[in-house]
Amino acid sequence: MKTLIKNAFIVDGSGGDGFNGELLFEDGKIISAAPAIPCEPDESIDAGGRVVCPGFVDMHRHCDAAVFRTGFGELELAQGITSIVMGNCGITLVPCHADARGIFYSAINVCVGTVDIDPPVSTFGEYMQRLEALALALNIGVFSGTGTTRSFIKGPASTPFTGDEMAQVQRLLAGALEIGALGLSMGIMYAPEYHGTTAELAQMVAPLRGTGKPLAIHIRGEGNSMVRSIKEVLEIGRLADVSVHVSHFKAAGSNNWQKAVPEAITLIEKARKSQDVTVDFYPYDCSSSHILSLVPHSFMGNDGSAAIASLSTAEGLARFRAALETDHDGWDNYTKMLGWERIVISSAKSHPEYAGKTVAELAHSGDPVEFAARLILEENGKVAIIVRSMCQDDIDMIAQLPYASVISDSLYADNGMPHPRLYGSFPKIIREYVNERRILSLEEAVKKMTSMPCARMNLKTKGLLQPGYDADIIIFDKNEFRDNATFENPIQMASGLYRSIIGGKTVYAEQSVVSRNCGKLLR
Questions:
Q1: CA-CA distance, 518 to 189, in Å (whole number)?
Q2: Considering the domain 56-288+389-458 in this protein, what is its CATH number?
Q3: d(CA 311, CA 306)
């Protein structure tokens, strides 16, 4: 069936100037976009002068478990997102030993939320098969995480890989790539990956070489060690001879603002002369993580459970305090660098009343270190946090880089106070960065949310409104499409999206989902 969208302002995703015109698609594929298309369509959609562009592509959401939940897709489709990639920061649900599944899923709960897949899955192949069988509300792609894979082979051990262990890891990663992983993701900031040396991490990702698929990396440190961490990931890419994509590129801490980002950009642009390097960013000045990311590796050691349990003793608390008051080479001490007044609790299961309050506020006139220790002990480390860490000037500088695409980095923890990026990242770009502050043109912004992430992940038929491309299309009024989620009230759906089309079929209209089975598993 031929469908013609008329009376449209076409922004095709290439970055070229938008134009008033029409768009024709048939059988899920775009036929033409032009000022006028002479044809007799089977169906017409009057865009009413609204923007018509490719559906947005978020290559960084931690929805690995959420995709199996009833109702998944509504808050994503409301933002104009038609394709998502999960499995970021080295954190994936598989591979996983059956006897360790409960412990492992509990550890990543603050990132992905409750994992409830029945029957459970253990391998990447099983996970992909389960996704293939789902009725998907939007397109889903998956990275294979090196952190989870390392943990599968070595557990929490800090020792270097043996030759046999490295071969096992490489076989698992190669297998995931062969059956459809869009790339590999790495989270060097987190256990157990922070134990890896630069050379060892480069050796792990050798299966990527020659595939054209990217290595998306959460760098080792985003604060005082940020520039050094950028040097490291560039070296990993060089040693492994693979494409490097820096996830959520930013600098944390006021002492680094307007200093570290320009220096890192200089390094990246020098590397880009001989390496394939790109970055992404989210449009907020606060990050989101879990409370154990604030705790030095020297305290956690190889047995996190024992370290947490030690907080019940005076000796353990003293060791915890000493670790937090020390500068650590190659690791950013956020509590020292930022202060407890910039650490906001977003979720603590036993204390929902803590959500939205800083550790400094909750400690009142008492000791924030002791309060944090008591909270970690009581919640067994499962506390989600928002960190007021970034500078808007740095974000704007990154947003304007021609090789920087937009992501959300959304977490899906069971959480009454999520980061607003979960609900609002993409319309926020249109409302704030395009309309209000004019950091980006509409055409630049759309490119960063469509063709750029698609090119990075080799999705060759998505991200452009050009003949032969998939008819993944959204329609919105530039002045009405907006984010509504705030840090104070984050669970607010985006509004103003007129229509979303996936594979030529309308999936979202009149502020509601109208179809939940048009998405595909991206390979």
A1: 36
A2: 3.20.20.140
A3: 9
